Amino acid sequence: MSTFTIFLILIILVSFLLVVVVMVQNPKGGGLSSSFGGGGTQQMGGVKKTTDFLDKSTWALATLLLALILISNFAIPGAGGNTESKIISGEQTIESAPATPMATPAQADDTATPADSTN
């Protein structure tokens, strides 16, 4: 399995987890925390401040997703190619070799024009 495939699987997994965490939250502040004893209050033996946990996990997953996407850019197949310009280094390929100029009809004619015969 290539490095890019591993990053791709991790990105999909983190994206799915981020969707789940965002969907659990209530847009008006209730969400999962309201079902565990009211909004913003602490529970006796359970999770404390669930809204803080969901908020922090959302930011952590979003940051992780961004980092994975940026790092996976280095693992894309074929992305590490030669970035130096062949023109600057002086190399010429067959396609970029300069062609000999074609003779125009005026140059092919051996007769001199009056403008050419000035001494």
Overview of the molecule:
By secondary structure, the protein is an all-alpha fold. The protein has helices at residues 3-24, 31-34, 50-72, 86-89, 105-108. The model has no long low-confidence stretch (mean pLDDT 73).
List keywords for this structure.
single chain; 119 residues; mainly alpha; 5 helices
Secondary structure layout:
Blueprint: H1 3-24, H2 31-34, H3 50-72, H4 86-89, H5 105-108
Annotation, overall tally of beta strands:
0
What is the terminal-to-terminal distance? Answer: 78 Å
Report on the biggest sheet. none
Number of helices: 5
Average of pLDDT: 73
Q: Tell me the structural class.
A: mainly alpha
Radius of gyration, in angstroms, nearest whole number: 34 Å
Helix/strand order, N-terminal first? HHHHH
Basic shape? elongated
Low-confidence stretches: none
Residue fraction in strands: under 5%
Q: Give the helix level as a range of percent.
A: 40-55%
